[in-house]
Description:
The protein is an alpha/beta fold. Helices cover 24% and strands 25% of the residues.
Amino acid sequence: MFKAQTRFAVILLSVSGWAAADVRLPSLISDHMLIQRDAPARIWGKADPGEQVTVTLASSTRSTTADALGRWEVFLPPVQAGGPFELTVKGKNTLQVNDVLVGDVWVASGQSNMVWQVSRSDNAQQEIASARFPRIRLFKAALKASDYPLDDVEGVWTACNSDTVGAFSAVGYFFARDLHKKYGVPVGVIQSAWGGTPAESWISPTSLAADPALISVYADWAQLISDYPEARARYEIRLKEWEEKNKTPGGTPAPGRPGPPVGPGHPWEPSSLYNAMIAPLTPYAIKGAIWYQGENNAHKSRSYVYRRLFQAMIQDWRRSWGQGNFPFLFVQLANYAKTPAGSEWPELREAQTMALGLSKTGMAVTIDIGNPNDIHPTNKQDVGHRLALAARHIAYGEDIVYSGPLFREVTEEGKSLRVWFSHIGGGLTAKGGPLRAFEVAGRDKKYVPANAAIEGKTVIVSSESVAEPMYVRYNWADSPDGNLYNAEGLPASPFRSEEWTAPAVYR
């Protein structure tokens, strides 16, 4: 449902409820909203079929007529960064949206590490107390899954302050704060993320169904639905046993309560979160998107599918917004040592890195700032900062070093291999002692630890136990301890030089 934004809403609702003739606006178009600068401002909503609607923002006015389904939209001329402005929408009733700013809008999406709140991050009390940025605007989309695309999300815009920032995405806030401080323009962040969700939930059904390489996504979901009745029965038994065992007269609930199995209506359903939490955002002009996800796809050979799935999702969002190749910036999985058996975190990181082949993409490497014992590292400041560095170059055109070293190629030199990198900035450096976490292998692809040394703009690697080295890899573990950086202090991304052969199930 669309939400009306009007000074007289309480009075009208108390008297007669929503009259059918009332012009209505989606939640995104509401008090304290932030509109993308230097782009046509798309304003849309609902009214009676055939109703005349007039929209005014700043000095621009446009009119339109609601179609047979009551839908209407107008495009206002671009406005430079600034405000506050008032947005007025007139039909048979008049709505006024107050305190509207114009600046840059970013969508922040993914799973739990994007959801992770400022209040649970490093130096939370200090960060919350100092969050006095009224020209940063925050919008948090309510969690919802759907079998079909929705036309609205639940949520409200708020100005960033100590009362509002604590419950917001830490990565989203720290990213916005960096950009706001750097450029002085208003910045808006739309948080649309859900913990524990896979990437296939965030891609449209059209794009997912169009790619034969992604058929396994539907096969996996079909298997879960097929197994659901039996899984539900087992869950009911376990839950009853748990309740009998933990009967207590009041007090704190006992730990270990079993959770329900994945089934109908679950946010893991392919496209369900795109339908409910992305599709309603796509009419809204944005500067770009930031993404932190992958943990839920890093197991049982699904990392290989992620090569195709993640890039398909990026391209899908760009088509859905219809703004061309807007900047899409993402976080590579951090170091984490407690991955379950069968997990493929190094392979997932490799799949993420491959998405850099798409234009206007950037990756924040976080292999050095995770927590080996916690899948939710609390240092979200550096994550936001590294994403902001990528934005400064990709979205804003600054000539800066925004990435750590990325593997480019390897050449053979007798019993050694020479590794070449891009994004070396002011030079390569080993932080905290000799280079670590390099391995080499011969034709058999059996890797052994390597001696590694920086030589100019390259790294030379070798091992006495590998007479004819062919392959090299670096930081190839769930929680490695590599120490290769560029002079600007940005870590090198994990890599391997060999071509990854697809698992048998995909060949």
